[in-house]
Amino acid sequence: MNQRYTALPVIAMGLKACAYILLVASVITMVGRLIFGISDLPGFWQGHLLPALEGMFYAIISWLFMLGVSEGIYVLLDTEENTRRTADAASATPSGMTAGK
Predict the structure, then answer these.
(1) Which of 30, 41, 81, 100 to pair with 59, CA 20 to 30 A apart?
(2) Is residue 4, in this structure, part of any structural domain at all?
(3) pLDDT means per 10 residues in the chain (101 residues)?
(4) pLDDT value at position 32?
(5) Closest CA relative to residue 53, chosen from 18, 19, 20, 29
(6) Residue among 75, 63, 65 nearest 19 (CA)
(7) What is the DSSP letter of 43?
(8) What is the reported pLDDT for 27?
(9) What is residue 99's predicted lDDT score, i.e. its pLDDT?
(10) Within a domain: residue 44?
(11) In-domain check, residue 10
(12) What does each C-alpha distance from 18 to 12, 13, 88 come to in angstroms?
């Protein structure tokens, strides 16, 4: 089989790895904010808990977005492969070989 888009699986894998690195870093940051807090804000709720929860909220949204884009790349690659297989089955000549390649 002729692999046409060689960079896209690498990009998708890199996005997925970055998403999990972001998630781990945000958990570490949340624990740090819970322990040390923000010195300008008084009290546990305003100085510790609310900044930690806000950071985790944005980290989870970013993590889900990055995973979604990564999986979207895989869906596009699978769609292209299935379309090529269908075109090959419908015609006598394989479509993996294009002009100029």
Answers:
(1) 41
(2) no
(3) 79 95 93 78 76 91 96 93 87 60 46
(4) 86
(5) 29
(6) 63
(7) S
(8) 92
(9) 47
(10) yes
(11) no
(12) 10, 9, 36
